[in-house]
Amino acid sequence: MGHTIGKSFTFEASHQLPGLPEGHKCGRLHGHNYSIEVTLAADGLVEPGFVTDFGDLAPFKSYLEETFDHRHLNDAMVTAPTSENLAECLAGWFISNVEPEIPGTLVAVRVSETPSSWAEYRPGRES
Ligand SMILES: Nc1nc2c(c(=O)[nH]1)N=C([C@H](O)[C@H](O)COP(=O)(O)OP(=O)(O)OP(=O)(O)O)CN2
Ligand SMILES: [Zn+2]
């Protein structure tokens, strides 16, 4: 696919990671200013020259605000609230709820808990 675009979203949430060694700081209750970036791609553009109108991603913004913002991720997710699991969870929701309504295809969801770290999920596609 020749064209790619990205859009970032943010929310604040708490989490407490299970299964870590005794004394690991991330086993304690703490929070992050999460940054979520979605990357979309398309071979061709739709008028007036978009992969997807950034405004058409508003439902994803609403989903993040309603489901995750100022919430405890351990309660909002069925898997351990790591960046990797959150990226996969968000990609699944995007593919089910946003992608059918837009011309672009989801390439990746990137989750950053801090400015220095990220995890990215790239959905496998049936060929
Ligand atoms: N692969 C992953 N490793 C870690 C995750 C994760 O989701 N995936 N998460 C955490 C914790 O949530 C932690 O709060 C963030 O980790 P870390 O980058 O170590 O936090 P700091 O910003 O404090 O890092 P410093 O560079 O040491 O300041 C841990 N690991
Ligand atoms: Zn954390």
From TrEMBL:
Pathway: Purine metabolism; 7-cyano-7-deazaguanine biosynthesis. Signal peptide: none annotated. PANTHER family: 6-PYRUVOYL TETRAHYDROBIOPTERIN SYNTHASE, PYRUVOYL TETRAHYDROBIOPTERIN SYNTHASE. Its EC number is 4.-.-.-. It catalyses: 7,8-dihydroneopterin 3'-triphosphate + H2O = 6-carboxy-5,6,7,8-tetrahydropterin + triphosphate + acetaldehyde + 2 H(+). Binds 1 zinc ion per subunit. This is 6-carboxy-5,6,7,8-tetrahydropterin synthase. Belongs to the PTPS family. QueD subfamily. Keywords: Lyase, Metal-binding, Queuosine biosynthesis, Zinc. The keyword Disulfide bond does not apply. SUPFAM superfamilies: Tetrahydrobiopterin biosynthesis enzymes-like. The keyword Oxidoreductase does not apply. Its cofactor is Zn(2+). Zn(2+) binds at H15, H30, H32. Pfam families: PTPS (PF01242).
